[in-house]
Specification:
Blueprint lengths: L12 H7 L1 H32 L2 H28 L2 H16 L11 H29 L5 H29 L2 H19 L16 H17 L1 H31 L8 H26 L3 H23 L4 H29 L2 H29 L6 H39 L1
Helix pairs in contact: 1-2, 2-3, 2-5, 2-6, 2-7, 3-5, 3-8, 3-9, 3-13, 4-5, 4-7, 5-13, 6-7, 6-10, 6-12, 8-13, 9-10, 9-12, 9-13, 9-14, 10-11, 10-12, 11-12, 11-14
Amino acid sequence: MKNRELDVNRSGYWRLVRENSDFRYLWFGQIVSLLGDWFNLIASATLVGYLTDSGLAVGALFIIRMLSPFLTSPVAGVVADRYDRRKVLIAADVARAVVVLGFLLVREAGDIWLLYMLTAIQLGISGFFFPARNAILPNIVGPTELGAANALSSATWSIMLAFGTALGGLVAGGMGVRVAFVVDAASFGFSAVLIAGIRFRPAQDHIDHAGPRAVFRQYAEGLSYLKRHLDVLAIVLNKAALTLTTSGAFQVILVALADRLFVIGKGGGIGLGLMFGTVGVGTGLGPIIARRFTGDRDRALRIAIAAGFFILALGVAIAASLANFETFLCGILLRGAGGGIVWVFSTQLLMHQVPNHFQGRVFATEFALFTLMGAVSAAASGWAIDVPLLGISRTLWVIAGLCLVPFVLWGGYVLRAKKRSDAGNTKSLT
């Protein structure tokens, strides 16, 4: 691979996109693919809510979306570490393009099982895509570019969440969900074409064409790495805490609100798009603003993660009042900002600390825990909002309180680590 390291002061977002063609292709592919992803999410959730009018049915959709990548992650992590990551990304995009076209067959309540099955297959394939994408990033950018590349990729996810869900809501609410499914399928195909333009090729001796029997043994090696490096494990758990306390539940709650309270557009599709879009704006702005203060400094990133959990709790508390649509949007904007900080900075810390030959398995494990906890959270919230004693508002207040748990745990961990570091420095001076 060509040496792409830039002087720290000269490295920036625009320079990275302009001068690093491999990253540019990966980034453009991400933009196109994410647009389709959010179209699909809005269309699927709107369709389930419209056909069933059930919080549990919507919760089941998000459980499947979360649980499917969890089941494929052990194999996906090994694949990302042992095979050409570029080819893995292309194959995943092509396969998802074919699967998504099947959503066009869902037309009535009796077809919901088909939507669930196709969602499981699509998200199971995504379980291969995301670890490979995170793991290939350090291969195609230099060390001084990594912080900017990670921030830009994460901001793009957030921007496309905002734009894609808003546009997807308009399309689903105005033109129907089938148009959104077609756009999603096309986006995967276009993404595969763009990723094919990446010139980076792994050294042949780094590719291990291991047989099926070796897959779980190699994944176990990744788990053993986490057991030996508890600091890395602690970072990995941040996203699981994020989705357990907030993200998984919020997706179900937003669909319920769009169907029951903030009903805008056919089946609430436009309202749902606006709510998801607002979260996307928050997740994009939060890390970018925070990074102006933290830079790429390890300790500053860790402190910011604790702050992110607190901002998350504050935003959910504001939203819990359900006073009006505008107040709710302000609350979920803050909720998105806090969650974005936790997500982006946890990813960056892992990219800094995990060796390349373990990154696929570590990111796959992180994604597996994230999706498993998301499934638990979605199931619990789907049940809670249908219970008269709880409902949506009280469920949101419970979530706000739960968000303080990882704030206290991670904040305490960071403080203890600083004390150990200070004690070590004092001892070395004496």
